[in-house]
Amino acid sequence: MGFISNLKESLGAWIDRIFKKKRAKIGLYGPPNAGKTTLANRILHDWSGGESMGAASPIPHETRRAMRKEGVVIHANGSSIELDIVDTPGMATKVDFKEFMAFGLNESQAKKRAKEATEGVIEAIKWLDDLDGVLLVMDSTEDPYTQVNVVVIGNMEARKLPLLIVANKMDLPNAAPARIKAAFPQHAMVQISALEGSNIDNLYQAIAAHFG
Amino acid sequence: MDLISAEKLEKMTSMEKIRLILDKVKNGKIVVLECGLTSDEEVRLIEMTMTEIRVDEFSGIEIESYPSKKEGSFLDKIFGRNLKGRMTVIGPANQLRTIEKDKYQISTKVSVGE
Q: Are B40 and A93 a contacting pair at CB < 8 A?
């Protein structure tokens, strides 16, 4: 029994090597409103028959539960990589319900959202233990030196897991990806607009190279 | 404001450090750690902060440290030496606000409670 299952595993790995097809569980991380869900939706749209991961919104912490999509096959660089994509809630060190009221939510809605947001941050942290790599999504128009970025990068470095920085929102006039590159020069970065899909093929090539 | 020495932090477990920081910050103190926290301790601090957020009482922390240095030297790797954490400032989110931060400097504004 053990011999047969070992043989199957070895054969599977051998076939994967021959056809350069690998599988990795990748988490989309970043501060709230960096565009994680928009990127997840873009990837699913391009490679998973137009499905969507979840709703995006200008109100922070729209994603408050991690969502996973299994078996997304990306073809790039002449090979394939099969991804399990985990869209995580935005990481934050503070959650204040008053911030949501500024977006038009009433007090009760804002408090409920704040409670769910804190649970979402914890869920995002728990997922770090169960990933093969991270796409760290940053808003190119914002200061890259946020503690969330510093903590996620430090954590992936400590775990020796691959990390790819995605400088998102390149469609906005004040986008400045050079600031991100200068802040974290030791990591590969791809600049894209997840909303418009610009430069997205470069991201897929980088994903295949990094996580394949 | 409390400045906590590297010597004191080195004698504490991760959980003791996190508890100490959160207790001080929840009491309105700004804490400066001479040698900071490890990346895992920072994640655990954020996790624990989330569990302690209460409406109108505690909305979380502001924490700032420098990005990690580049990889350790060859000798560091040979001898398994980890890079130590870097100086870190932590305070209540409603009192400590980061004005500007780059690789070499962190500028913060502290509001004195009423």
A: no
